[in-house]
From TrEMBL:
<feature type="domain" description="PH">
    <location>
        <begin position="2"/>
        <end position="109"/>
    </location>
</feature>
<dbReference type="InterPro" id="IPR011993">
    <property type="entry name" value="PH-like_dom_sf"/>
</dbReference>
<dbReference type="GO" id="GO:0045595">
    <property type="term" value="P:regulation of cell differentiation"/>
</dbReference>
<dbReference type="InterPro" id="IPR001849">
    <property type="entry name" value="PH_domain"/>
</dbReference>
<dbReference type="GO" id="GO:0016020">
    <property type="term" value="C:membrane"/>
</dbReference>
<protein>
    <submittedName>
        <fullName>Pleckstrin homology domain containing B1</fullName>
    </submittedName>
</protein>
<dbReference type="InterPro" id="IPR039680">
    <property type="entry name" value="PLEKHB1/2"/>
</dbReference>
<dbReference type="Pfam" id="PF00169">
    <property type="entry name" value="PH"/>
</dbReference>
<keyword id="KW-0472">Membrane</keyword>
Length: 147
C-alpha cells in the first residue's frame, strides 16, 4: 500500500489524556495508522479518514485541548469524526500541522480507484493520431448499409 504522508506526531490518549509520540502514516486507502516507530511494523491503531472526517481544527482553534509540555499550541490538530469521536494530535511546527490538515482533508474527499484502468493513454505526441483513429468509423462499417 502506498504512503501519502508520514511523520512524527504527538497523540493524546482518549482515556487518560496523556500525550504520546507516535509515527503516523496516512495511506492511499484513506486510513491513518499510528505506530511505535517509522518502520510502521508495530501498529497501535488505525482510523478510517476517507469520507469519515467531519472537521479538522488546528492551532488556536483547538480550545478544549492543551498541547504536550514544551510544545506550542500552534502545532495542535483536532480531527472530529462523523460518529462523534475526536483525535487530538500535535505536530512539531505550525507548518507541519497545516500540512497534515491539508493531507487529511484531501484523503477525506478522494475516492480510491478499486483497480487500475484497463488501458493506458499513449504518450502526448502520439495523442492526436490516437484520437483521430478512435473517432474514425471502423473500416468494416461501409460494408453494411444504414437503414
Amino acid at each position: 500500500m502506498a504512503l501519502v504522508r508520514g511523520g512524527w506526531l504527538w497523540r493524546q490518549s482518549s482515556f487518560l489524556r496523556r500525550w504520546k509520540r507516535n509515527w503516523f502514516a496516512l495511506w492511499m486507502d484513506g486510513t491513518l495508522g499510528y505506530y511505535h516507530d517509522e518502520t510502521a511494523q508495530d501498529e497501535e491503531d488505525r482510523v478510517l479518514v476517507r469520507f469519515n472526517v467531519r472537521n479538522i481544527k488546528i492551532g488556536q482553534e483547538c480550545h478544549d485541548v492543551q498541547p504536550p509540555e514544551g510544545r506550542s499550541r500552534d502545532g495542535l490538530l483536532t480531527v472530529s469524526f462523523r460518529e462523534g469521536s475526536r483525535l487530538h494530535l500535535c505536530a512539531d511546527t505550525q507548518d507541519d500541522a497545516i500540512a497534515w490538515k491539508t493531507a487529511l482533508l484531501e484523503a477525506n474527499s478522494t475516492p480510491v480507484s478499486p483497480r487500475p484502468l484497463p488501458f493506458s493513454f499513449p504518450p502526448l505526441p502520439a495523442m492526436e493520431s490516437w484520437v483521430t483513429q478512435t473517432r474514425s468509423p471502423p473500416a468494416w462499417s461501409s460494408q453494411f448499409p444504414h437503414k
